UniProtKB/TrEMBL annotation:
This is Regulator of polyketide synthase expression. Gene3D superfamilies: PucR C-terminal helix-turn-helix domain. Belongs to the CdaR family. Residues 154-273 form the CdaR GGDEF-like domain. Residues 320-377 form the PucR C-terminal helix-turn-helix domain.
Amino acid sequence: MHKKAQQLSWLRRTAAELSAAVLKELNSSLPWYRKMPATRKAAVESVAQQGVASFIEWHEDPTAQPWIAADVFASAPRELMRSISLQQTLQIVRAVVNVFDNRIAGQDPSMTEPILRYSRDVAFAAADVYARAAESRGLWDARLEALVVDSILTGEHDSELPSRAAALGWQTDSDCMVIVGAAPRQLDVDMIRRAARRAGADVLIGQHASRLIVVAGERAGGAETDGTSLDFAELTDKLDEHFGEGAVVYGPTVSSVQDASRSAKAALAGLAVSKAWRSAPRPVGADDLLPERALAGDSLAKATLVSRIYRPLADHSTDLTNTLWAYLDNGRSLESTARGLGVHPNTVRYRLKRIADIIGFDATDARQALILHTALILGVMRRDKQK
């Protein structure tokens, strides 16, 4: 005990000298420390100096303070924990221990073991501080992400939406879309994020009741694989396995996260009627379900069918519109259509090809014929209503 009293007396007398040596060690061994702003550098210095004082108290009675995190890090402002990493904090601890080894153990080798034990406790304490901060930040991020996804689903958001998304790591300011489906029994959001990152996408994830909602956008710099633009259809295929049973529907691509509510509404409307298309693929695009959505009263689907199909045809040529009507009314028979129009079947083939070139839908395909027929009906109804 007499020797320990001598050690403590000597440590207290040299505390100022040890603190100065620690600051000198930080400055010489840590390049990132030298580049820090003065206020944050002062906070780091405070932590290092507190480490010296705490060691003296700890050495006096190692059992009195079994948990020394608050003692060492209490003087550090919360912003410091956000501005330096755990690795950098451990580098500070290492610098302090180096000084202890040189100045303390160098004078008294019996102090080597206490120094090692103290450095271990401080390292674990630092890890605990960062773990608690990460846990707190994770809970806050989860609440913020739920708020962002909910505002996208409802469409009730303001100009702050992009900044809130950015706070969650959303790095894209370009195209994005929304994918919806049933939530799996065991939802692992980390797996979804990893799969999205490998494909070059950022995602925002939310669960509403039994539904899983994924907002996906291209990461800055494009896909990690070859730098090409993100293929949203391919991304949806890769994320499909993370959804539960039933349909998975993705909305149309929109230009920014602020417009994502339009994609979300289309995807949700598609999910609601997906069972009406018995052979629908998985995943399926919301715009592939336009007829079912229109029959269910979806005004967005009706407007899309009219603007994308009926109006371009009506503005282009009455021959094309009449040919399409005749082809659909005659059960998609070339010969019957040709006889009804008084033209050669090859003329009908040519006009159908022109229609496909103009609007991107092939009337000879059964599913696309249904889409075209619905668009014509809605277009005529809207035209007559406006008269």
